[in-house]
């Protein structure tokens, strides 16, 4: 009997390796069930901000969470599809019929989906509505100061109030009857927020952050190998300097060529100084260009040449 239990235990596990090469025992969770907490099956939710909760499954490392409308048998749209270790999620949804489901996973096994249906119904009290912001995305980084702000329509709203904040202070305020507005931001970090109004009542503001970066990075200055240097080793260390500018994250790209016309490319990649690579005997030409997360690019650096003669 002890031997039988031993074989059953082996059948329910699988041996895997972690990142450091150690052995991990992975448990078979395929016969376990994810218990959904809220929203429960066939409920009505009078809010367009929906909080989803489910119980953790022992030995699961992540959960696949999905929402479809109107359901998964006849989906018009897959509204959400994420894999995360959390056992909760928050999603903003319009009025309509939905199904949501969750399954648990580890590196080798997964459970079946647990599924529930629900309806998002109109909010009874106007101030309880939440303005669902559409574009641009939260924490958007751009090199274009003029942006078209968009949000979802709120039933019963007669206008929308839009505020632009810098360092927590309102620097611009406009109203519109439309669900979009073109705004020109100052360079730097800003917050934009929108609320709906119906003449006597208003919702709370919904807000997002944006970073406008209009300034190209400084041009890198090459230092090593010095121009026209002759190296006796193919293990080459490239070094350059550049003063960073406040704004979006900046990166450098090094390009190495075999010809002075810069057409015979040997290597090109993002790099930090010092950058090391191995090259064969030849004469090479190299330069560095900086760019940032907003899409700005510096001018290319000067071009240095060197010869590897080992």
Provide a concise account of the structure shown.
This protein has one helix at residues 2-11, and strands at 13-17, 23-27, 36-38, 43-45, 49-54, 62-69, 77-84, 88-92, 96-105, 114-120, 133-135, 140-142, 146-151, 159-166, 169-176, 180-184, 188-197, 206-212, 221-224, 229-231, 235-241, 250-257, 265-271, 275-278, 282-292, 304-308.
Descriptive tags:
single chain, 310 residues, mainly beta, Immunoglobulin-like, 3 domains, five-stranded mixed beta sheet, 51% strand, flat
Task: Tell me about this structure.
The chain is mainly β and 310 residues long. The chain has three domains: 91 residues, Immunoglobulins (Immunoglobulin-like, Sandwich); 87 residues, Immunoglobulins (Immunoglobulin-like, Sandwich); 88 residues, Immunoglobulins (Immunoglobulin-like, Sandwich), CATH 2.60.40. A five-stranded mixed beta sheet has the order 4-10-9-6-7, with no helix packed on it. A five-stranded mixed beta sheet has the order 12-18-17-14-15, with no helix packed on it. The longest helix has 10 residues. It is flat, with a radius of gyration of 28 Å.
